[in-house]
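Reposting from the mailing list since nobody answered there.

I have sequence plus structure tokens for a pair of proteins and want to know whether others read the tokens the same way I do. The first protein:
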Amino acid sequence: MNSIKKFVFAIVTIVSLSILTEGFVVSKAADNEYKATSKPYKYTYSNGEDGYYLDNDILYHYDYHSGLTDELVKLESKKYNFRNIAAVYGGNVYISDHSDCIDFEGKLQTYVYSISGNAIINTCDGSIENVSEGYVTTLDSIATSVSPYSRTLYKLTSDGMDKVSTFKKSGYMRFIGKGSGKVLIYTQYTNLMMQKLSLYKVNLAKLEETNSLSKSRKKLATLKVKSKKYSGMVVDYANLKYCKVFRGDRFYKYTYKTKKYKKI
């Protein structure tokens, strides 16, 4: 029972930290011209000339030359939700829902604001978690604080997001590389108890070419809990050589080539 409590506490902590830092996480990989900054407002996206930020569900534009701020559009407020700018890409500002309530059970959405059209032009399913060179992954919904969720890979377009592939019972996701060498690393669980997972890498260029996930992915590792008394595992970080995983009672570093765990 204590092990289960430790696991639940660790999961909630990881989820909470992810939510609190989400704006910074996705901003690092957003459109090359726009970067996250705290000026003139926290979570502003700026290219040095124009800045976009949210305050009380209102999207603002800030002109760095004149110092003037314009109100662009107000989004309808939702109970138990807050929003942030997930990306500025291809002439659009992408604004995603996030839950500020761990018991929230609802639909997460991303709103697409056209800079040239000065209007919300589309509403897409899911909340953007990761952004890289026109690709995004989304969290599709929140069901509980500990179960793996459905996530989707999209490509950003002039009018919104085009779905590439959906990943059921997924957890950790991360983009690595650039151009034709870009890959997506993700975890896939066999069940909701999270006692066994597979870690894959997907070549995105090959995925678009073949439209087949099975033909474009390669398994990096299969991980299991060391004892059935522990309730599950969570990958905290992964690259092409190793991952860091919470495995029942503590964090371990797992090296794919040697298939060995090392306590962290």
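The second protein, same order (residues first, tokens after):
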Amino acid sequence: MSELRIPLVAAAALSGAVLLAITLPAAAQDPRAELAARIDSLAGIYEAQLEQVRVLDSIRLARLRELRTDTTVVGPFVVIDRDTVPVQRLVDALTAAWSRHAAFVGHAVRRIEGTIVTMTLPPAFTPAGGAGQYRFEPFVWGSADYERAARHVMSSVLTDALPADLREWLDGGSVLPGGSLEWPYRELATAHSHAARNCFAGDVAACIAASGLTDPGEDWSRWYTPGQLRAQVAQRSWYSGAAGACVHQLDDAACIAESRRLGGALPPLGGAARASLLASALELGGTGAYARLFDDAPDVGARLANAAGLPLDEVVASWREAVERARPSIHAGMLDAGIWTVILLAALAVLAMRSTRWRLG
């Protein structure tokens, strides 16, 4: 009896396993089938949306083709006019700017040949490189500022074409000879750095160091004293960890460590001063000065010397003298202020005489 029971139990187990094998795959496959159906439905929606995008693109391209596109060549620039914006004044301003700077650009003009200049309203600026060209949509602040737009285009093109080490050294500055030196003067006069202060006093070697043309040292001691570096850390960091030890415990090593953590000490002279030094070198070099920036050179200082055709210390000395001459007048505006003071006092006197306390009789 027991021998008969074993085959029956085995048969029952086998049949149950078969039934389970039949039902489980079906149940397991249901979510997959449902997901596949959903994906198929989304694919249809995507194709429909994509077709709408194609239609809209075709309409946009058709409208663009209807616009008459004229081009005007100004030196290395190609100015595009699509009738939507009057650009003749920009062409005139760009022509004047190029005539002033063509000589010092020299044979380096091939590096900026074919630069595309367009205008947009509202103002926009979108450089986009491609096939050695640049696309500029310059800022135009009102109808009277096309000269500023032309200068902006010229400066941007010449800066973007510079060698990589020179662009990095500029620290965000842009090159254009003939700019104002008032801001570099203020930067040099107020920098919290012994190198900048010595430069301001006439030390050319200190000017070279403060301009980032030499190695500042692992501890930035050629730029800052320990106290000056500590003051910079205090401005840039929360007072915790190495910064706290630097500021509160006057730990010079902690100041150096925190400056390293921050990516290095900030240079005494930034982009505005450095750009003015580059502009000064170009002005000293005259014809072909910009082209000579691309000559083989071991460092940025050598490039500036090549451009100017002078030793670096003479270039920097000339720049420092020019910056010193750009010192803002402390008496500027005093005459106007004096006139308005007299007018205000006279008005107050009239009002006082109208008061009952000051009336006679």
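Reply #1 (J.P.):
I read it the same way you do. The beta strands are 70-74, 77-81, 115-117, 135-136.
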